[in-house]
Amino acid sequence: MAAKYAVRKTSQLVSLADEDVVKDIVVSTILDLWKVVNTLTRLRPSKKERYRVTIFGSARVPKDSWVFGEVKRLARRLSEMGCDIVTGGGPGLMRAANEGAAEAGEAGRSRSYGVRVDLPFEQEVNPFVEQAFEHRTFFTRLHQFVLMSDAFVVVPGGIGTALETLMVWQLLQVRHLDDRTPLILIGKMYSHLVDWAREHMLNPQFPLANPEDMKIPLCVNNADEAITAIRKDHSAWRKEQRRGKAGVQVGRASRAGTRAGRNTTRKQGL
Q1: Helices (H), the chain
Q2: In angstroms, what is the C-alpha Rg of the chain?
């Protein structure tokens, strides 16, 4: 396409009547814009002021559900620890997480974010979001989640939550994210998901993944186990920040401990 455009580009000026050349210019320009975006998103601060945990979960769970209460407690405990909370900014378990962060108040001094997407339903930002970001596409929204987050916790959810979970899993697999970034899945539905992936993707006749890929998510039974894992990673992160820029590349070895115990005993949980 670029070669075609270069050959046909005999002047700096192009008539809008020449639809083929106009189309080539538009496509080429869009691709160049993506190159700029991709280059800019490679930049990372040498020192971060905030540790942010993204909580993915359903928009459909009512406030009187025990799951809502557990997610709120999870977010409150993380906020008290000093973690910022990031959600999709909507109702259900997203609201539970933002509400839990708000309940921590001054004790946590954390911030609460909502990263929204333009939908014909589930439109309202929940009232506990301190700062909301609006996106027109899921693609850019997912990209912001990845750029903002130091850890991911997944609570019960539907197709959208599964999409978010699998995207983060895949980015960790190909190391487009720091491979020590915690991806914590709470509850039996996710341990079953990992079991399904292990059974079908590690088929010895035609393996579709590597055995180590199945160790990327940390499957836990309940919110308390997730809090323990985040506390360990957050502590390592704080030590790294104190070491400053010189320790950025080598200081995260202790975070590997968050990967231990992935094959946990199944218990009653979220």
Answers
A1: 2-8, 19-40, 66-80, 93-104, 138-148, 159-173, 188-201, 223-243
A2: 21
User: What are the backbone angles phi and psi of residue 220, rounded to the nearest 5°?
Assistant: -125, 165
**Please, are residues 209 and 199 in contact by the beta-carbon 8 Å criterion?**
no
- The domain 56-149 is classified under which CATH number: 3.90.960.10, 3.10.450.40, 3.40.50.450, 3.40.50.2300? 3.40.50.450
Q: 3-state class of 84 per DSSP?
A: strand
**Is the sign of the CA dihedral 152, 201, 254, 229 positive or negative?**
positive
- Separation CA 89–CA 7 (nearest Å): 48
Q: With contact defined as beta carbons under 8 Å apart, do 58 and 92 qualify?
A: yes
pLDDT tens across the length of the chain (270 residues): 444 444 444 457 888 888 888 888 898 888 888 788 778 777 766 567 899 999 999 999 999 999 999 999 999 999 999 999 999 999 999 999 999 999 997 666 789 999 999 887 766 899 999 999 999 899 899 999 999 999 999 999 999 999 999 999 999 999 999 989 999 999 999 999 999 999 999 999 999 999 999 999 999 999 999 999 999 999 999 988 887 755 444 445 555 554 544 444 444 456
> What are φ and ψ of residue 197, in 5° steps?
-60, -45
